[in-house]
Write a structure and sequence with these properties.
Elements lengths: L7 H28 L2 H18 L7 H19 L4 H6 L9 H20 L2 H11 L4 H8 L3 H20 L1
Helix pairs in contact: 1-2, 1-3, 2-3, 3-5, 3-6, 3-7, 6-7, 6-8, 7-8
């Protein structure tokens, strides 16, 4: 049977499989940068891919950017919708005694403060920070946000300044 003779659903599944394999690591990485929890990041990735699959064709030219931006938005929404993270972060702290408990508590508190400040930022500012610090290049951030690559630096600087102000509050 030629590839064109396959049912449309089979061709679409193949395209979606390729998209999933290509983009899943980036989607999880972005979500993990925001959430700092691998399991929750994988849950967000699953939701993002399901949402994309239900709305768009797998071979859409905007797929990679859409998925990455959606990962940042979904992860930020998860941060906004839940309460304090202190209990969970403490549960994941290393228990080998090599790490000073006081330093670990300070590090956990600093991460919590950054996440809370990030959740208070406007969505666009939080998204550019999540994408860039999630490991994406300026070009990838531009593609995900639908802006010119030349705008990313300015957007990033403004978002960082807003984050600093939030942290000083």
């Amino acid at each position: 049977m030629s590839p064109d003779a396959r049912p449309v659903a089979a061709r679409e599944a193949t395209a979606f499989d390729r998209l999933f394999l290509a983009e899943y690591p980036a989607v999880v990485r972005i979500a993990h940068r925001v959430l700092a929890d691998a399991t929750e990041a994988e849950d967000v990735a699953q939701e993002v891919f399901l949402s994309f699959h239900n709305r768009h064709r797998a071979d859409a030219p905007f797929a990679a950017g859409w998925l990455r931006a959606a990962a940042a938005h979904a992860a930020l929404n998860a941060v906004r919708s839940r309460g304090r993270r202190t209990r969970r972060e403490s549960a994941h702290a290393p228990s080998d005694g090599a790490i000073d408990p006081h330093e670990a508590a300070e590090a956990n508190e600093a991460r919590r403060e950054v996440r809370e400040a990030l959740a208070r930022l406007p969505e666009r500012a939080a998204t550019v920070l999540a994408l860039r610090y999630g490991g994406l290049s300026y070009a990838e951030v531009a593609g995900a946000m639908g802006v010119d690559v030349g705008q990313v630096g300015t957007m990033l600087r403004r978002a960082e300044a807003r984050l600093r102000k939030e942290l000083e509050r």
